[in-house]
Amino acid sequence: MEVTLPDQIKLYFDKAGVGDPTFIFIHGGGADSSHLAPQFYFFARRGTAINLDLRGYGKSDKPVKYGTIPQYADDVAFLCRQLKITSSIIIGHSLGGMVAVELAAKHPMLPAAIVLISSGVLFPKAALEDLEKVLRGLRSDTYRTTIQALIDQICLPSDRFKSQVERTFFAIPQQQWVAAYEAMFAWDKVARERVSACKLPILYVEDSGGCFSDLALFSSLCPQLVIGKTVGSGHFPTLEVPEQVNSMIDDFIEAYSRS
Predict the structure, then answer these.
(1) CATH number of the domain that 122 lies in?
(2) Quick check: 191 and 217 in contact, CB under 8 A?
(3) Are 91 and 118 in contact, with CB atoms under 8 Å apart?
(4) Where in the sequence is the domain holding 106, given as residue range(s)?
(5) What is the number of domains present in the chain?
């Protein structure tokens, strides 16, 4: 399925299931909707599930000007309004988690709760320094070597879906990678403000490979934050250990719906 955004970009999405709640899945940079397919199919049995390709990714249109975090959030908000979705659970992986926070801060009436998976919402200093090194590499003629090194760093040796990550990462043009990192750095400057504006239930799912967020700061800004951690997966627990991710989200939704 697809929807045409106000700037005539076609946004592609899969939809399955019926009834409430509505789950909306947002993939990360360098990825596409396939990275959240295990969650999409699981939660389609719990309500209505929507798994989208952000502009520039997957089956969605690929404009010359690449998207930003606020633009991605506006795109999701437009999709919700077109589909008449007024209360949804937004689930974002990696960069998609930033989009979920931006959506909750900018369009607070749309999400009922957000779930962030392995997402750099509030980068610690060390993580920012690492990202700056990656960005310098992405801007160079040897950017493909940088992408491979990035994959090797964020995947565990035991990860089974590394080849899928490589397929989607290497399908992204160099300038789109650069734009994605620049978008994350730009959003990081307002991340604290955006996080502070979020008053809804929030689940953060941390992977086993290391955290890209300052969770202590996150908790101080959002006392309602719930933190979980997967076992045996690098940066892509949605693919590697979907049963753990799905179970945590399921338990979180049940708990918050009773509150």
Answers:
(1) 3.40.50.1820
(2) no
(3) no
(4) 2-258
(5) 1
